[in-house]
Amino acid sequence: MTVTSPPSGNGPWPELHPPPHWRVLDFISDLHLQATEPDTFGAWQRYMASTTADAVFILGDLFEVWVGDDVLDAASDHSPDNAFEQACVAVIAATARTRPVYFMHGNRDFLVGTALAQHCQLQLLADPTVLPFGGQRWLLAHGDALCLDDTAYMAFRAQVRQPAWQQAFLAKPLPERRAIARALREQSAQAQRSAATNQPYGDVHPQAVADLLTATGTTTLLHGHTHLPATHDLGHGRQRVVLSDWDVTATPPRAEVLRLTASNTGTALQVQRLPVA
Ligand SMILES: [Mn+2]
């Protein structure tokens, strides 16, 4: 089923128009799947196999790192991480055979490309994307592009989102890419430890959020990235809904699906946070 529309006549913002029979949409993000955390993978695998939603939206950082779609060609990749990545891809493919699965890039998995999307029938979403659903206009985003106060990260993001940078990176041999990704993660872990605050991911910039809601004609921003799950009333009928990250081994475990359920008339809406662990 193809429901993604090209940018509408309302402006440059991509809009996704769900088919009218959709009632239940699931949103997840920031699972940071990695081979060293099999319990989080297991919880995600069980969720993906059992969800009854009409569609699943993954709003970024599904993977702790994604170094290029050529990891799908296992024969050319001798990393121990490869088997784990293949297992993740199989989970997506199995769910995508039963319902649409959408994917938006996060700051860890922005190199997920069209080859992976085709391989497992994943539908790529631009960041941000407007979603009219349940009588509201939602704005879906990963969230990192709105963390303007983290100037070091914003500079890094501007660099790595350039096609030329990505082409040069993807041209490197897989083992080298994995080593670079590892070094970057260690660097950012170091930076987090030495930061004055306890909040490693920064938070979204309130004015940037307000401006984006105005520009897109939306009322509710739905995003991940900050690992600060909450629903914020922004006044003027506006809200910011933040997804939970997943860490099944944390105390208490964090693993949550945000579910939107529209009434049969398609106008009333229920928002639920469903624990998965
Ligand atoms: Mn993120």
The termini sit apart by 30 Å
Estimated radius of gyration: 18 Å
CATH superfamily: Metallo-dependent phosphatases
- Unreliable stretches covering 5 or more consecutive residues: 1-9
Write down the overall geometry. globular
List cofactors, ions and other ligands: manganese (II) ion
Hey, roughly how much beta strand do the residues contain? 15-25%
Largest sheet: 6 strands, mixed
Count of separate structural domains: 1
CATH architecture group name:
4-Layer Sandwich
Helix content: 25-40%
Number of helices: 7
pLDDT averaged residue by residue = 91
CATH class: Alpha Beta
Helix-strand topology string: EHEHEHEEEHHHHEEEEE
Could you say what the CATH topology is called? Purple Acid Phosphatase, chain A, domain 2
Strands, total number: 11
Structural class: alpha/beta
Strands of the widest sheet, in order across it, are 4-3-2-1-10-11
Describe the model:
With 277 residues, the protein is α/β, with parallel strands linked by helices. Helix content is 31%, strand content 21%. The protein is globular and about 50 Å long. It has helices spanning 38-50, 81-96, 114-119, 151-160, 163-170, 174-194, 206-216; strands spanning 24-28, 55-58, 101-104, 122-125, 129-133, 136-141, 220-223, 230-235, 238-242, 256-262, 269-275. It has a single domain (24-275), classed as Purple Acid Phosphatase, chain A, domain 2 (4-Layer Sandwich), CATH 3.60.21. Bound molecules: manganese (II) ion. The site of manganese (II) ion (MN) has 8 residues, from loops. Manganese (II) ion (MN) is lined by residues 30, 60-61, 106-107, 142, 144, 225.
